[in-house]
Input
Amino acid sequence: MNRVTRIAISLERDLLKEIERLREATGESRSALVRRAVLSLLRQSRLEERTRCYLEGYTRVPETEAEVRAAEASAVRLLAREPWE
Output
């Protein structure tokens, strides 16, 4: 089980006021709201890192023309099976 550690942070007064307004609107505690914000930031950071690695890989080893044609042909075959009504 994760252990909880208390930390102290410094925030600008206006930012704290915004946090308090949001906290009151959501009914969350200040800790829950900040925890949710940090988790969201971490998820976004991981997504950006994975995207960067993906793009770097395709830049380093791009698809060949044959691979692109094969992917397009597969997409056409799969979409042709869909009941477009």
Summary: The helical segments are 13-26, 30-60, 65-80. Residues 48 and 54 are 10 Å apart (CA to CA). The mean pLDDT is 95.
